[in-house]
Amino acid sequence: MKTYPGAFIPTGRTQLCHRRPLNVEKFWFGVCYYPEHWDPATREGDAKMMAKAGVNVVRMAEFAWDLMEPGEGRFDFSLFDETISRLAGHGISTVLCTPTAAPPRWLTFAHPEILRTDANGVRMQHGSRQHASYAHPVFREHSARITRAMAEHYRDNPHVVGWQTDNEIYCHFHDDHGPEMQVAFCEFLRRKFRSDIGALNRAWGTAFWAQTYGSFEQIETPRPGRPTYCNPAHLLDYARFLSDVVENFQHDQVAILRPLNPRWYVFHNGIMPKTDYRGPFTQDLDFIGFDIYPFFSHEPATRAASHAFNSDRARSYSGNFIVPEHQSGMGSQANYGQNLPEPGEMRKLTFASIARGADSLLYFRWRTCRFGAELYWMGILDHDNVPRRRFGELGQIGREIAAIGPRVLGTSVYLDVAVATGDYDQREAHDIFSIGLPRPDSIAEGIHRVFWEGGYAVGAVHPNDDLSGIKVYFIPHWAYFDPAWVPNLERFVAAGGILVIGARTATRDTNNNVVAETLPGCLRGLVGATVEEYGMENPEGGRVKKITIGEASVQGATWSEWLEPDAGTGVAGRWYGRHFTGKAAVTVKSSGKGGVYYVGTYLSPEVIQALMPELTRKSGLQKLWPAPGGVEVVKRHSTDRQLWFFINHADQEIILDSVPEGIELASREAVGKSGMRLPRHGVCVIERKADLLGKSNNE
């Protein structure tokens, strides 16, 4: 049996910074295309229609392995050769995908051992997708062969501009407990702990429940509930291992693609569970892809805010992104269905995605499929191939992208308030041992929504990223906390930033064990206070405690901590109720030019609103632009220009009293001397060049 390969050095060029634009020569605007689903007569007019709508790129082949390699080592690329050539004749480039998310039946029939095994020991079967084990050496050998065959065949084709690796890794499920995964997990642990089983036992705390291991071979992949709770450190390293597996699997492909044509863009599409997108997986790529389906949020009243947060969270991994799949119609699988985007809504959500970091965008899909597991996952064209409203809207967007796209490239999303997101270990550590508390990302989304609805330039940033220019930064209850992040936070505060830390932060270490230090652990010096008592805050228990913050009185949310401030640390809020009455609930410590607030409860919207007057006063935070409620305002900027996006999410026409002075890019008309009407689902994008910058205090 082949051994599992060790860690690798990423070959890509990705820098992990939320401000990083994509390094592409044009704004890629297109559709996902599946020529293998259609007969020649149906395909005949596709390229001409796409070009008419302004499409300049398609993405193909992610599920076509069986056609390109109908038998082992026997290749046939004729369908895609013909399709690429026809598209190129209309000025349309191609992004190809490695087709490894759906291995062919001849492979799974000959090698059933490559199929994944779930936690109950049940082996997956052919007939869906993502059924092969990413760690199995036989599957990896075949995956590398089809990748190399495709890459060598298209290495000199000028119309192939990039590659997507696999497709939505871990989209449906992630567990894999087959024999090869057991071997791979042992080797991962041996590598991590440098062959020292004693170091593993100490890190995992295996003295609890007689778990001490005598060798790495004794360790199994953990299966919760068999019979009861698993070791949280064991589970965290298993989560890290799952990401490591796909990092290495993808690297096999990237290492083949890069040398054959260094000009190709290489990316993956997601974002899905059990993959660390701030680690080697993304560092190995040119940029990350984020598949955007806003209608998974079923409530129109919350959809726009959710879309904004999800886009910002995607950007927190490594910067601006490509959208390989953007929703264009109703989405559905066998057991669910979503609403149909209304007239203008596809356009609105497209520009909302671009505003918040999309530097290229493709719609899923060109034509709705008549068979298979996505019968009613609607594309630009309906099943009957008749171009209707969505095709007309695509054409409008295509014309506008021709004007707006080139101006977007090279710009970053401006923000001056942010929430911490984007850390894989933190998220996994919470899910492993949540004690019934909400996910930090759920709290982050709530904080984000308060500022988004308030018209502030809010975003999402990892605590080890560039925090310069941010005025207020929130860390929403990150129990898992790496002490290596502390110096960056100290610099942020010293330079004038206001840091707000939620309860329970820095209570667990990088092994997911509780820290030995007095809480808040490694943040103790920065916070300037200690946690004397803590516990759940369950309103149904009848022991309600409230917090007074300035003139406001709010109920403690989810969790309560009694704080003891150090000398020189102030109290910004106190408890009222039970034995916590009079104790500090919110502390504030000045440091350098900034300050640190520690909040001894969960950062609910009510708590944030109570803190808002003091936070805005101390930070100088202002709304990005005075606009009515329901209008999303986003600014993208570079050294020589600003792009202002005004997006109407209200269910009615909105009148803007004022907009920045500049050029509305779609119409090329000068604006700013008076207000503007935005129809329902309306969008306008205004460019201000260097000679106009700084003319308003709002900018």
Task: Describe this structure as you would to a colleague.
There is one protein chain. The chain has 699 residues and is an alpha/beta fold. It has 3 domains: 385 residues, Glycosidases (TIM Barrel); 203 residues, Class I glutamine amidotransferase (GATase) domain (Rossmann fold), CATH 3.40.50.880; 62 residues, Golgi alpha-mannosidase II (Immunoglobulin-like, Sandwich). It has 18 helices and 29 strands. It has a 9-stranded mixed sheet, with helices on both faces. An 8-stranded parallel sheet has the order 6-5-4-3-2-1-10-7. α6 runs parallel beside α9. The longest helix is centred in the middle third of the chain and has 29 residues. The model has no long low-confidence stretch (mean pLDDT 95).
